[in-house]
Amino acid sequence: MQKARKTGLPDDITMRHDNHYVDLIEEKLYGPRIRMISINKIDPSPHQARTELGDIEELMASIKEKGILQPIIVREKNGR
Protein backbone atom coordinates (compact mmCIF):
# COMPACT_ATOMS: atom_id res chain seq x y z
CA MET A 1 0.00 0.00 0.00
CA GLN A 2 1.32 3.41 -0.97
CA LYS A 3 1.62 6.09 1.70
CA ALA A 4 -0.61 9.10 1.20
CA ARG A 5 1.51 12.16 0.61
CA LYS A 6 0.48 15.08 2.79
CA THR A 7 2.77 17.94 1.77
CA GLY A 8 5.88 18.77 -0.18
CA LEU A 9 6.99 19.31 -3.73
CA PRO A 10 5.54 17.40 -6.66
CA ASP A 11 7.39 14.15 -7.42
CA ASP A 12 9.03 15.56 -10.55
CA ILE A 13 10.62 18.53 -8.72
CA THR A 14 13.65 18.10 -6.47
CA MET A 15 15.06 20.56 -3.96
CA ARG A 16 18.14 22.44 -5.03
CA HIS A 17 19.92 25.60 -3.99
CA ASP A 18 19.65 27.98 -6.90
CA ASN A 19 19.04 31.73 -7.15
CA HIS A 20 16.09 31.08 -9.46
CA TYR A 21 14.71 28.05 -7.60
CA VAL A 22 11.30 29.57 -6.79
CA ASP A 23 10.92 31.00 -10.29
CA LEU A 24 11.71 27.61 -11.83
CA ILE A 25 9.15 25.84 -9.64
CA GLU A 26 6.48 28.46 -10.36
CA GLU A 27 7.12 28.27 -14.09
CA LYS A 28 6.95 24.48 -14.08
CA LEU A 29 3.74 24.45 -12.02
CA TYR A 30 1.94 27.52 -13.37
CA GLY A 31 3.65 28.41 -16.66
CA PRO A 32 5.71 31.51 -17.46
CA ARG A 33 4.96 34.76 -15.66
CA ILE A 34 4.11 37.95 -17.47
CA ARG A 35 5.28 41.19 -15.89
CA MET A 36 5.72 44.81 -16.87
CA ILE A 37 9.39 45.79 -16.53
CA SER A 38 10.84 49.26 -16.81
CA ILE A 39 13.05 49.52 -19.90
CA ASN A 40 15.91 50.94 -17.81
CA LYS A 41 16.11 47.60 -15.96
CA ILE A 42 16.86 45.66 -19.15
CA ASP A 43 20.46 45.24 -20.28
CA PRO A 44 21.36 43.71 -23.65
CA SER A 45 22.80 40.21 -23.55
CA PRO A 46 26.52 39.97 -24.31
CA HIS A 47 25.58 36.92 -26.40
CA GLN A 48 23.20 38.91 -28.64
CA ALA A 49 23.95 38.03 -32.26
CA ARG A 50 22.98 41.49 -33.51
CA THR A 51 25.82 43.96 -33.04
CA GLU A 52 23.79 46.93 -34.23
CA LEU A 53 20.34 47.28 -32.70
CA GLY A 54 19.07 49.99 -35.03
CA ASP A 55 16.94 53.08 -34.46
CA ILE A 56 15.02 52.96 -31.17
CA GLU A 57 12.55 55.59 -32.43
CA GLU A 58 11.66 53.36 -35.40
CA LEU A 59 11.16 50.40 -33.07
CA MET A 60 8.93 52.46 -30.75
CA ALA A 61 6.81 53.62 -33.70
CA SER A 62 6.46 50.03 -34.94
CA ILE A 63 5.37 48.80 -31.50
CA LYS A 64 2.81 51.62 -31.24
CA GLU A 65 1.43 50.79 -34.68
CA LYS A 66 1.53 46.97 -34.64
CA GLY A 67 2.08 46.02 -31.02
CA ILE A 68 4.62 43.47 -29.90
CA LEU A 69 4.49 40.52 -32.28
CA GLN A 70 6.63 38.21 -30.14
CA PRO A 71 7.02 38.32 -26.37
CA ILE A 72 10.23 39.78 -25.04
CA ILE A 73 11.93 37.26 -22.79
CA VAL A 74 14.20 38.52 -20.02
CA ARG A 75 15.73 36.96 -16.94
CA GLU A 76 16.84 38.44 -13.66
CA LYS A 77 20.58 38.76 -13.15
CA ASN A 78 22.39 40.30 -10.19
CA GLY A 79 19.14 41.65 -8.74
CA ARG A 80 18.17 43.46 -11.96
TrEMBL record:
Gene3D superfamilies in alphabetical order: Conserved hypothetical protein from pyrococcus furiosus pfu- 392566-001, ParB domain (3.90.1530.10)
Domain ParB-like N-terminal intervals: 33-77
InterPro entries recorded: Chromosome_partition/occlusion, ParB/Sulfiredoxin_sf, ParB_N
SUPFAM superfamilies: ParB/Sulfiredoxin
Any one of the GO CC terms: chromosome
GO process terms (BP): chromosome segregation; positive regulation of sporulation resulting in formation of a cellular spore
Transmembrane segments: none
Name assigned to this protein: ParB-like N-terminal domain-containing protein
